[in-house]
Design a protein that fits this description.
about 110 residues; YaeB-like fold; two-stranded antiparallel sheet; about 35% strand; globular
Length: about 110
């Protein structure tokens, strides 16, 4: 299911990065197509995960990517939002994908809620 035009790009606040994180229409369509259990119905959970993550991991595959995760008790799953940052210009951050997962396995823990 492609949702072309369903949004023209959104910015989510991200206190951890101290900058907003962009979700482009193209990336939103990608997520909706590959992870229809998340978008478009649970778009607010993407924002909540960036606003108040339980954990942030540094990707082992991409040095300029972080995985923000948040446990959603009523679903019994984590929401994981993968954010890329410009390697030489840390003012731009954007979501490359987001998904739900029963466990966290990828990445090195960079920060965790106490």
């Amino acid at each position: 299911m492609i949702l072309v035009g369903w949004l023209t790009g959104m910015l989510f606040p991200c206190p951890y990065l101290e900058k907003p994180v962009e979700l482009t229409e193209e990336r939103a369509d990608h997520i909706a197509e590959r992870h229809p259990d998340l978008l478009p119905l649970h778009l607010e959970k993407v924002g909540e995960t960036l606003q108040s993550p339980d954990q942030v991991r540094r990707s082992v595959r991409f040095s300029n990517a972080r995985l923000f995760s948040r446990w959603i008790a009523n679903s019994g799953k984590y929401i994981v939002v993968v954010v890329m940052s410009e390697p030489h210009h840390h003012d731009r951050h954007w979501i490359i994908t987001a998904y739900q997962s029963r466990r966290l396995s990828e990445g090195v823990v960079e920060w965790s809620r106490a």
